[in-house]
Amino acid sequence: MTQALQVPTCLPRHVAIVMDGNGRWASQRHLPRLAGHKKGVDALRRAVQASIDQGVSVLTVFAFSSENWSRPAAEVAGLMDLLSLVLNREVDALDSNGVRLHFPGDRAGLSERVVQGLAAAEARTAHNQRLVLNVCFNYGGRWDIANAARRLVAEGREITEQSLSEATALSHVGDPDLLIRTGGEMRISNFLLWQTAYTELFFSPCLWPDFDASEMACALKAYAERERRFGQIGEQVQQPVGPQYA
After folding, report:
1. What are phi and psi of 130, to 5 degrees?
2. pLDDT category, 229, cuts 50, 70, 90?
3. Rounded CA gap, 71 and 87, in Å?
4. Is 68 among the catalytic positions?
5. Please, which pLDDT band fits residue 129 given cuts at 50, 70 and 90?
6. What phi, psi does 74 have (nearest 5°)?
7. pLDDT tens digits, one per residue of 20-39
8. Is residue 175 flagged as an active site residue?
9. Contact, 158 vs 176, CB < 8 A?
10. DSSP per residue, 161-172
11. SS3 annotation, 48-100
12. Residue range 34-58, pLDDT digits in tens
């Protein structure tokens, strides 16, 4: 008999994930790297369902960074084809499951086919409220901050912490409460640099294609055991008080 997962009572509302380890997963099995990325799609599907099952409201994942263009051309082309395939195959199921899609990132340089696919998926799921799924594609934290600053300058607005937050690519959701990185690396790799100022970090040795509901529950349990003070001392904190969510 499968043991029921223990869901912590203090849950993060917004979880972000650096989905690392696809290539290593494939290499360990003497498979092409793209095979690992395809298996990573299965893991993302499981993470979405686990988020819904455990009451997470926002899931943000790092799918393709602005630095990933430096990878071998064949792998980049394969990732673009995989994105198009996923959009064709997954959007119907996500829509029926109440998932609202966003694709934060720089769309300059992407093919017209990909850009149209991203926009169509966002429009198709815009009415959903069960889970917000941000798939950061061609995204970088430094790009996000610089782009927000350029936008404010162009609009003639003063650059403040609040206005900059409002101009970033994830202004439609609050800052992440928990950032998970799989694959054993202990860095955030230019992901959500502005938004993770007070985010709890969880590093898992699990390679992304092996990530499942039990791994998600482990990260959520670790989060629930931490005290979030936001600059206060422990005695001042009666309950977790984080950023407000849009």
Report:
1. -75, -40
2. low
3. 22
4. yes
5. very high
6. -65, -40
7. 999 999 999 999 999 999 99
8. no
9. no
10. HHHHHHHSTTTT
11. HHHHHHCCCCEEEEEEEECCHHHCCHHHHHHHHHHHHHHHHHHHHHHHHCCEE
12. 999 999 999 999 999 999 999 999 9
Catalytic option among 20, 144, 175, 177 = 20
Tokens representing residue 162 in the block? 């609040």
Helix, strand, coil in percent for the chain, rounding step 5: 45, 15, 45
Average pLDDT of every residue of the chain? 89
DSSP conformational letter for 147: H
Task: Give me the residue label for tokens 């084809």.
Answer: 81
d(CA 55, CA 58): 9
Active-site option among 42, 68, 106, 210: 68
Domain boundaries, the chain: 14-227
Cα–Cα distances (Å) from 121 to 20, 34, 40, in that order, read 24, 23, 20
According to CATH, what is the number of the domain 14-227?
Answer: 3.40.1180.10
> What gap in Å lies between CA 48 and CA 131, rounded to an integer?
8
Tokens standing for 17? 């994930």
Q: Residues of 32-56 as b/e, b for ≥16 C-beta within 10 angstroms? A: ebbbbbbbbbebbebbbbbbbebeb
Residue 74 confidence class, pLDDT cut points 50, 70, 90: confident
Return d(Cα 181, Cα 212) in angstroms, integer.
13
Strands 58-65 and 200-203, sheet pairing: unpaired
